[in-house]
Amino acid sequence: MSQLPRRGPAPAGRPRAHGLRRRSRSTAPAAVARREITLHDQRVTYLEAGRRSGGPTVVLLHGLASSSATWLPALPLLGRHAHVIAPDLLGHGESAKPRTGDYSLGAYAAGLRDLLLALGLDGATVVGHSFGGGVAMQFAYQFPELTERLVLDASGGLGPDVSIALRAASLPGAAAVLKAAHTLTPRRIAELAHRAVRLVPGVPRADLDELACALASFADQGARDAFVHTVRSALNWSGQRLDGTGRLYLLADLPVLLVAGTDDAVIPLDHTVAAHDRLPHSRLEVFERTGHFPHAEHPARFAEVLLDFLHTTSPIRSDTDSFRRRLVTTRSRAAAAVVPV
Q1: pTM higher than 0.85, yes or no?
Q2: Which residues belong to the signal peptide in this entry (predicted)?
């Protein structure tokens, strides 16, 4: 693997992970299966690899207007050494798209908890990309007893800035615009345009491919409505409404890996770097000349970085007492900083 810039230190004093088999030299990719389960009378689909790998459980969460398919380039590589679950979040992919669904971060986190418990899994390393990073952070806050490690991949929720296209999607009439755009653009024309733009130098192909998949998904009214509801729960015209940086201190004891690309046009690299500065024991992996989808643009490198992170850290699960200690300590420091007038 080529030299990676800005690798943060491993958490001090933590031994190597238990439960992760010594990685073999086998290059055979793991098989990926699509599975389905019903939760709360709603279909939840997910991709799975490495069930019998003997490795730790890893959950991969996709972003807005995406699906579990975004992880397909990396899934077979990760599945050689870990048990990997990549769900289609509610309103995305092949999962249910209820008109009355709750598309908030908290609801997505609760849905992930229910999926893990239904599958008989008592904890996982949670990996979130973009909006999925926000869900991953929310999951770690709400269910620390189920969170072993946290990986944020070009994550949202770390600052207000976001691309103008996503901000525009929060405006009134966005669903109608998406429907009109899909109706007025024949599929064949869209495919030709996509191929032509891929030839333009300097434009990350993974970003274009993911955008094409997102636009294709808007043919489904349920997907359009779910997208707009989800966007409005997290964004407005000014940018990201939900900022998790104020609670990053709650992750101080959790092994955290931060991944970002230098050419991300959706979420600024600075957000991830600032989060790394707030979490001194976290690791930072910056992918040069990479856009918003490091895991899809460089799947082998992403898999190697993630597997190394699993191999060199131990799973940590917080409980109520440890959370209380961090909250009280921070509150005490804030009170001490107040100077009477």
Answers
A1: no
A2: none
